Amino acid sequence: MLSVFIVEDEFHAREKLKLQLSQLPDITLLGEAEHLTDAIERINQLAPNVVFLDIELGEHNGFSLFDNLNIKTQVIFTTAYSEFALKAFDNGAVDYLLKPFNLARLSQALSRIAAENIQLAAEKVKIHAKSGNKTYILEQENIVFFQTNLNMTIAQTKARNYVIDKTLEQLDLALGSHFVRVHRNAIINTQRVDNLMRLENGNYQIHFIDCDTNVITSRSGTNKIKQYFNLT
């Protein structure tokens, strides 16, 4: 069962999407919002599995949602503008539906998310890393951070780093709540943070216990860190 929330300022577009969702199995509509400010509050409160998000929302831009979420959810953009696709995926969107999209395309997007969620739930605490003919089982508490580098996902521990076979998007959904995605290419273990250094641009350079490598937050990552550590 997937719970969903719709953010769309056009009445007819909302109604069409609601009708399409009603024709699919195992989908629960938690709510809808016309304005971004209302959407942010309700999404953080309801914590849906999936958010359908339009880009043009009156005076606001749908991308602003990413800077204001304090829960983990999967975002599917629903828009008539194809030129924003790359930016959408860079911000962590899992799919991009160009209007008008049919029921089959909508079903495809949701079925893929449902299948990934089932698989990730079964593997939630298992992080596998391969090196040569060896497979290492990494405990979450021993991982300092995850980072992408040259299309590879790296798990950094106190002792060394490992290449793993999961994307940051998959990890972001599977990891415990003390793991926070602070950049599109980095997820940190907040329990391994030693100190936060504020940079001139307002973002943070994160230093870790027993690890010489640091991670720098993005703007949205900075907001998440402020919320997590209750910083002003």
From TrEMBL:
Keywords: Phosphoprotein, Two-component regulatory system. Transmembrane segments: none annotated. SUPFAM superfamilies: CheY-like. Residues 3-114 form the Response regulatory domain. It comes from the Bacteria. Residues 127-231 form the HTH LytTR-type domain. The modification 4-aspartylphosphate is found at D54. This is Transcriptional regulator, LytR/AlgR family.
